Every structure is written in structure tokens, then in C-alpha cells.
């Protein structure tokens, strides 16, 4: 029943099968597993924002860089003043969090790991980038598109700016992220869902933006 319902959701609602499956698995054990998971996601977003702002690509969350500490305080302050409507719909609402907060964290993490690899040089460990590429690309439409763009941008930057041949892992990540994004964008449920909001889906691409 569990898998058949998720398959039905994929067929008639949208392609966000992975986030909804994860949502159901966490809530299946009660609210506390989701609460713990959600706290970790919020903390991850805060730390990643601070690391990107301070250009600190070390794996440690206790960096001694003054810029990192300042950025961490600023990131915490920024999140603390989010509008209550956003907090209710994207932070404290389980399904909303899995549809917006978790994909944002996955995409930011993908960018951070790619930036670290880009700055410090590729190695065999670069093949591990395939995992965050896949996770970010299989979440929601926005995160999927961004994940593909992140990988593509770093490939182009490697070629144009650094004048280097991109590591083989970069191309595998591009293929993986594009394939995963396709399962989200071309899900059967998306065409069915377009009937729910005909006024929006009849607009041109520019008007939708």
C-alpha cells in the first residue's frame, strides 16, 4: 500500500516522489524524527551560508577564521528575522519543509562541495560529488534545475577560467543530475497537475517568471 500510494502520487500529482517518500518515512515514526531531521537541515543551511560568505571551504563547522564566525552570526540573524508566514509554511510545516527547506539545503551543499573541489583541485574523492548531485536533482523542480546548472557552471568555469579539463566526475555528475531532474520534470503527474491551475499553465514562459 505504501509504495502503491507513492506511485499513484507520482502519476497524478507531481514528480517530487523522493521528498514525499522521505517525508512519509520520517513522519511514520512520529513527529520527533522529523523534528530532529529538520533542525539538522536548518543548521546545515546556516553553516553553508556562512562558509560560502566567508570563502571557507574546510569540512569543519568550527573554523577559526574570523570571517566565518562573523558570517555565521549574520546567517543566524538572517534566518531569525524571516517572515512568520515563511516559517510556518517552509520551516515548521513538515511537508513544506521537505518541499522547500530540504531541497534548498541539498542544493547549497552541492554548490559548496563543488566549490571546494574547484578551489582545492579534483581527485578520486571527486567521484563522491555524484551523491549530492543525485540527491539535489531528485527533490523538486527548482532544486533539480539549479543542481544541473551548478554542475554545468563548474564545468564551463573549469574550461574557460582555469583552462583545465574537467575531472571525469564532473561529467558523470552532469549526466546523473540531468537524468534525476528528468524524473521530476517529466513525471506523468505534472501534466495532470497542469489541469488544476489552467490560468497559470496557459501563460508563456516569460509571463510565468
Layout: helices, strands, pairs:
Elements (H helix, E strand, L loop, with lengths): L1 H11 L4 H11 L3 H24 L11 H15 L3 H8 L2 H27 L9 H8 L3 H20 L7 H18 L2 H6 L4 H4 L3 H4 L1
In brief, what are we looking at here?
By secondary structure, the chain is an all-alpha fold. The protein has twelve helices and no strands.
Describe this structure in words.
About 75% of the residues lie in helices and about 0% in strands. The protein is mainly alpha-helical. Helix 6 packs antiparallel against helix 7 (about 130-135). The longest helix is centred in the middle third of the chain and has 27 residues, at about 95-120.
Q: How many strands in all?
A: 0
Low-confidence stretches: none
Beta-strand fraction estimate: under 5%
Specify the biggest β-sheet.
none
Alpha carbon gap, first and last residue: 38 Å
Whole-number mean pLDDT: 86
- Rounded to an integer in angstroms, the radius of gyration calculated over CA atoms is 19 Å
Helix count, DSSP H or I runs of 4 or more residues? 12
Shape: globular
Q: Which percent bin holds the helix content?
A: over 70%
Derived structural class: mainly alpha
H/E series, N to C?
HHHHHHHHHHHH
Amino acid at each position: 500500500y505504501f509504495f502503491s500510494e507513492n506511485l499513484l502520487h507520482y502519476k497524478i500529482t507531481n514528480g517530487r516522489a523522493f521528498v514525499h517518500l522521505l517525508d512519509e518515512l520520517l513522519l511514520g515514526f512520529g513527529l520527533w524524527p522529523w523534528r530532529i531531521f529538520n533542525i539538522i537541515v536548518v543548521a546545515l543551511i546556516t553553516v553553508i551560508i556562512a562558509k560560502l560568505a566567508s570563502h571557507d571551504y574546510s569540512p569543519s563547522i568550527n573554523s577559526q577564521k574570523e570571517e566565518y564566525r562573523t558570517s555565521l552570526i549574520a546567517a543566524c540573524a538572517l534566518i531569525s528575522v524571516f517572515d512568520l508566514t515563511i516559517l510556518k509554511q517552509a520551516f515548521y510545516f513538515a511537508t513544506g519543509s521537505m518541499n522547500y527547506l530540504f531541497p534548498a539545503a541539498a542544493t547549497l551543499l552541492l554548490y559548496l562541495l563543488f566549490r571546494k573541489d574547484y578551489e582545492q583541485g579534483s581527485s578520486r574523492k571527486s567521484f563522491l560529488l555524484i551523491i549530492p548531485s543525485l540527491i539535489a536533482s531528485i527533490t523538486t523542480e527548482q532544486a533539480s534545475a539549479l543542481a544541473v546548472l551548478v554542475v554545468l557552471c563548474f564545468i564551463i568555469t573549469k574550461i574557460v577560467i582555469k583552462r583545465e579539463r574537467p575531472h571525469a566526475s564532473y561529467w558523470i555528475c552532469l549526466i546523473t543530475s540531468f537524468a534525476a531532474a528528468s524524473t521530476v520534470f517529466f513525471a506523468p503527474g505534472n501534466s495532470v497537475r497542469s489541469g488544476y491551475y489552467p490560468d497559470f499553465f496557459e501563460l508563456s514562459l516569460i509571463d510565468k517568471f
